[in-house]
What does this fold into?
Amino acid sequence: MFDILVAGEINPDLILSGDVTPEFGQVEKLVDSAGLTIGSSSAIFACGAARLGLQVAFIGVCADDVFGHFMLEQLQARAVDISNVILNPGGQTGLSVILNRGDDRAILTHLGLIGALRAGQVTDDLLRQARHLHIASYFLQSALQPGLPDLFTRARSAGLTTSLDTNWDPSGEWLGFDKLLPLVDVFLPNQNEALAISAASTLEDALQNLAQKCLAVAVKCGSHGAYASQAGISAHTPALAVQVVDTVGAGDNFDAGFLYGWLNGWSLEKTLRMATACGSLSTCAAGGVSAQPTLQEVINYVQSTG
It folds into this structure.
């Protein structure tokens, strides 16, 4: 029924854009724009994958409040199946406030129910309805972490492939991956995350180390493009030359593009080009979902730029 099942966190982003620095002491400063949009790596990824034409289902936890309803309405409007989302009437939906200043940003996050989803809530019956299971924001999903190895094992037993994008570890400890990574088919870290998890000193060594544990590894390197390794084959693609407005969600849209190609059996090089185009094009507007490309838009852009 579904190409991808996303088990993830649910929260909107309040994005304030302007060349300002917050200051305490009741100092009021003006920003250029403000907008409430879909937040959370998992939700941005789900919308990006659906935008490319994949059938996507989402399971997560949010509250029966304004932010929760906003997220569910926005996900559904972008063709993401939300029938398995769990409403917690006693909690609060999480929220991130992002001050966007050119190519840099500051983020304040209220966790709320962001980390509330448990692995046991992703049932075997739900798994059997999908081809692939994707997990993002590993370190924010604290209740999911202990049961994730078992969840990946159950998913594989049901015939699904798996993918993981950890995001950054605020504690700096980077624990728990020796048992988890062998259960991951596609690992999608950025460069700093890859270096930290592999304990390698160079990107080349990190790729080699991680490729021995996972079927495929794709590492996002921002303006330097991306590198990937699978079955002894390596690939690199440069970032596209676009006018960057906001980098929020670029990595999640890269993931959506990579899994589109991977699930369709494309070559590693073609898959990586697809992913890099999706990540680059998504930076052309504020927020993680405003500039998400369709499959045809990616193809047109890549063809027009050679």
